Queue: 2 jobs
Job 1
Amino acid sequence: MAEFQPAGPAEIQDGEVDAVEVDGRRIAVANVEGTFYAFDDTCTHQGCSLGQGELDGTAVECPCHGSQFDVTTGSVLRGPAQDPVETFEAKVENGNLEIAL
Amino acid sequence: MTRGTFVVLGGGLAGATAVATLRNEGFDGRLVLIGAEHLPPYERPPLSKGYLRGEQAAERIAVRPEKWFGDQEIETRFGETASALDLGAGSVALSDADPIRFDALLLATGSRARRPAIPGADLSGVFDLRTLPDADEIRAAARQGARAALVGMGFIGAELAASLRSLGVEVTTIEHGKVPLRRAVGPEVGRVIEGLHRDHGVTMHLGRSVEGFDGAGRLEAVLLDENERVEADFAVVGIGAVPNAEIGADLGLGVDRGILVDAQLRTIDPRIYVAGDIASHDHPVFGRIRVEHFDNALRSAEAAARNMLGAGEPYSDPHWFWSDQYDMNLQLAGITTGYDDFVVRGSLEERSFAGFYLRDGVLIAAVSVNRAHDVRRSMRPIGRRVRPERSQLEDPEFDLRTLVPKRADRG
């Protein structure tokens, strides 16, 4: 069982996505109506930062080539990406974000 | 229909996306994918970038792993073209086998590189860039210190210039227009691209024409107007693409550069659909257009495949593309044709900006250089033909998403 690690204050607004660094790894975090979802920041298509992308509901869209992933499961919603992104458990404790790698 | 036989003619991104979509949407009939190239479908954008620079291997640019086609029970005929199509019988004939009778057919034959009708164009060392073997040839010629002449400064020329510079190649470009990429992005952004390439040591001849290629058996120089010679070890011609739409005329489908289709990407023959570069489609926002970008190949193939299964959905994609050159990421959504006003957010000089193309006050397209957010957020407003205030467009703090009310957005 992965342990939760601190990922800074939970500042990401509802409807937004951003990237944080946890244990030397870039993790994207999306806020969907107050619930935080964490997933690998690196797009499985060509490696762009999903945290720099756009969030629409539970779909994050890669800023480079338009691939879409479901932030709740990591699955591909639209190509060109073929492979899902890894997802991680996330929670907020006392206003701070914690992510289990 | 989930049974029967569907044939997809064209082994590029559009063809591969169509067969994937058909299977994902539950089509479990016979599915045949025919491609003229011997390789399974691959993505072409890396051919001028990561693949050319040796950063991405061939298997990394495959649209699907080769094994996937077998797993999905898709019959592939790579390295083949249709020798005859019989609409009366509803069949397509290949060179080596009995005709395949189809219930629905998708045409996605893509484009080929335009070759200039000038002397010496067939010399060894004069390349164009369309296929993976083309990229391999250019890569082999792109030794450190080699001299490259690039004819045409569209996206192929501009991306190649950037990749070749990073490989240590001396690059000279010759472009007919006064500004690179003018037709695609307009002169304002074209000049930004010009500055970018000059800063990276590219020699640019703008407003010049190429009269021929000179060399004894192999290219030695490109000949310009006014008797100027550009000495070169190799040249790449990137002066546009010609749609492989002849098949449409052969079938009597109606062709105007591309094959004419309705908003659902269907031809006048209800069994036959078209996707990608060759689809001249009736767009709900932009009118009749034909688009040669990657994203259009992908999205139009998805839409055509769903419509082959009876979805009946119009293809209303905002038409979006990107280009990576050096450390610059350029994106553009919409169709810039006929714009009469251009509003900048950010700084052209610092190459960090978004630009908005307006026609009669309506937002018709948006471009970004290292500000991709603004283009993504402009897509829905473009689709809704909104009339934003100049001050809203200029203000980096203004959220473009709010140009379309949430409720209207869902409706």
Job 2
Amino acid sequence: MNTDAILWALAVAAVLAAVVGSALGWAASHIRPDDDPLVARIDALLPQTQCGQCQFAGCRPYATAIAAGAADINRCPPGGEHTVRAIATLLDRPVCPPDPAYGVTKRPQVAWIDEERCIGCARCLPACPVDAIVGASRQMHTVIAAQCTGCELCLPPCPVDCIELRPAGPAVGNARRVA
Amino acid sequence: MAAWAHFPAGLALESHKRADAIVPVIELPAPSRVVLPLDPGTGESAEPVVAVGDVVQRGALVGRATSAFSANVHASIAGRIIAIERIEAAVPTGACLCVTIAADAAPASTQDPWPAATDHASMNAQQLCDALHEAGIAGLGGAGFPTATKLVAGRQRSVHTLLLNGAECEPWITCDDALMQTAADDVVFGAALLRRACGATACVIAIEDDKPAAIAAMTLAVDRAVDAALSLAVVSAVYPRGAERQLIEAVTGIEPPSGGLPVDAGIVCQNVATAAAVARWGTRGEPLLSRIVTVTGSGVARPCNVRAPLGTPLTDLVAATGGYRDAPLRLIAGGSMTGIALPSDDVGLGKATNCVFVATRADIAPRVDAFERACIRCGNCSDVCPAGLLPQQLHRAALADEHALLRELGIFDCIDCGLCDYVCPSQIPLAHRFRLARGRFREATVAARKSDEARERHEQRQRRLRDEAAARQRAFEEVRARALPAARGSDGIDDKSGEAP
């Protein structure tokens, strides 16, 4: 029997185990998957208005709470019935109607600043969860309509009530294709 | 002349095209008021360049194209602008920005604002495209797609064939037939200009075999032109032969790829009426100011073809052909299969309005009754579908809003021809459902993109706030580290009590 061959095989296996083991160990501590895949999948179904009507500080915290079983799936007014249905399908839970205690579903809307009345106090800027308001102190502010989620969070801080929510325009036309 | 047979499905419909109602084409005098839609039919409006109260000459620019999908709009009569507003119009979206001109004021100059003749012979392809763009020429076949955009795309993709669509497959419509009978030389001349503008080496004019008079006139015109690159193809009359993709497949045997455009198959497709409009520009320098439109249906006294200024109120068109009769039930812009029902006859003639169909109950009566029944899986719809789709599967997916499945089943290859409805024994409004499903699909796609953007922006903001807080904390600690030895010496502050503010 060739003991050399056995020793070589053992050595190669040991080296491989050491290399792969340390690589995996390093990866486990350094390349941590930054989120729970279930949270990400629930988050993908939420409308991303970041309005906080669910009493969580945005869509992702709400998704985390749903994943942990700490919150019901019917607390999202902007998503409405459609979102409840989608999350129920994902989690294999019964569909329930949206809970009116957290607000009512509205049509898509965007914030609009009455620039005549805006005093440039800049208080609405930090309230916007998606940085969709442009302005600076004592300068007129305006809303980037394309980025506004219609979350209404800019309304309470405004001291002169110059922000209103207007219905969002139609997302797409419906053109025909027959020549 | 060659006859081609290849065509997947389709159906020979009763054509309702009475030979005595095709020619002559009645020239309508300038109406006292025109309502010009700024949307050519693609859903994108031109931007008005005039103001209410302005007096304009015939041919003056009133709307400028702002994208590749909009076209310039010119005043089709001289007069004063009395309104620029979003109102009901004969476009797929139902309403668009329209410019209303009343002929109650004469402009200072009566001379046409365009040159008497164009030097098209000395223009290169790009200059030709630019000139056609300026002239506001858009597809007159029914879709209203800006001609120059198609030509430029064709040249960029080095197309080999210009296909002129004279099939006119839809029941009731005869305006292209009338045009080919009365202005065949214009079509041939326009074809030569279009072919030069898109760089194609060959030009095929396709006509359905139920138009012998048009075929005869076009054959003579093609012979007169003595152009080796120009040929005529006679195709059998099967609806929807004239739909762009179906015609390309029938004439060349090439199937444009799903989701692709005719230029991907090396072909630019234009309507014969568009070619005639190009010829009018070439010979007279005239921008697109008028078109031939079929006024037909059992609800009009004298069905006929009319050449009318764009924007002519449909009331005037119907009045010019003897008015209504027999209790008209519905007014449709376009034909009986793909037309758009209009809420009133007070809308202006659009560039893409090829037909005004005044339907009585007899024309559009349902076969049995007005009720929809359950699908019985007979498969008639998939037998006739010219796009080779499975309408009953699509229908189930559309009802369930299964967007991934809809895409997989090819909902975007549906050409809205309406044949599946037509043959459905359960009277299910399939084409209508598919149109709505496509709208919802697009809306969902846009909403998903918006929500992804919002998530991204929110996450970026969270990161920024975290970084700012960390920077403040670091600055605070630096200050504290510097101040601490001195503080400890003087009043003995406990260094464990100092948390970031």
